[in-house]
Amino acid sequence: MIRLIFLLLLSGLFSGYSYATCFGKGISFAPALNVDLSDKLNANTPVWEEQYSTQYVGTFDCSSSKSKFTYTLKLSPDNKNAAIFGFNNGTQWIRAQIVNKIGDRELSKRGEHSAAELNTPMTVRYSLESKPKNGRVVPGDTLMLDDALMVSDITGIKIWELPIWLLQQVGKILSWLLTGNWPYDERDMYGQPMNIKYAPKTTTCRFENAGLTVRLPKMGVAQVLNNNQPGYTPFSLNISCQNMQQEGIADRTVEMFLSSNNLLASDASVLTNANASGAQGVGLRLVKRDMPSSPVILSPSNVDRGSATS
């Protein structure tokens, strides 16, 4: 009888140790990390990485002298489970992935702990994407993620139970990607929210002195025929651009060219005057000031550059 009681007590001791836990308060959320990608991602910089640290706060109690925690990366590095979001009603698509390796965490003290002991750095890679088959549409320019990186208590989970638990987490990620809702369970302890904004400003450029009038000297036919560059008159077109990105780079390729509907049919660098009162047999040619022997090619269209000089 004494031996039976001893065995029961021993069994109860090991059972209590195996299922000793730190969870029990439910999920708690850290203050959100605010990220603005508006001037970070563009056609010239399609990928951007930034490092953060989770901001878990509060306290929790562990009933074991050795507790183990694992992290679930909702912004999965796995392309099969990638988190892709379509900002501004699906106009711009961005993939977000936590790319640094985040290992399990062990705490070796029974009793009260600070949530800060579970904080960890995370590196997030953002990438511009073409429209994917599957992705979550964001109605405006700001995505509010309830949780990007979550920590769970896995103390007491048997070795053979862990693969099943991990598979369940993968299933939860898929559910979260589809619905935006995460099915939290009792072992989930802390989550790190993120607010991600993407409101890119498109670079626009214009001629500051559009409508410029260039007055040419009056010349006779003999002067035109006997001079190498008759009537040569330098002038400048001033260009300015707004909403430039970092280091003065446009967010897209910008081409500026000149056009006219009065071009010589056989030479798009020569302007002619088709009016009855205009000079006949004489044309005007634009050249680059720093390369006078290089003519400026114009386009017959004001929307299609074609082969015009840019």
Automatic annotation (TrEMBL):
| Matching Pfam families | Fimbrial
Its keywords, alphabetically, are: Signal
Tell me the SUPFAM superfamilies matching this sequence.
Bacterial adhesins
Q: Which InterPro entries match?
A: Adhesion_dom_fimbrial (IPR000259), Adhesion_dom_fimbrial_sf (IPR036937), Adhesion_dom_sf (IPR008966)
Start and end of every Fimbrial-type adhesion domain? Answer: 201-290
Give the signal peptide, or none.
Answer: 1-20
The source's domain of life comes to Bacteria
Protein name per Swiss-Prot or TrEMBL: Fimbrial protein
Mind giving the lineage of the organism this protein is from? Answer: Bacteria, Pseudomonadati, Pseudomonadota, Gammaproteobacteria, Enterobacterales
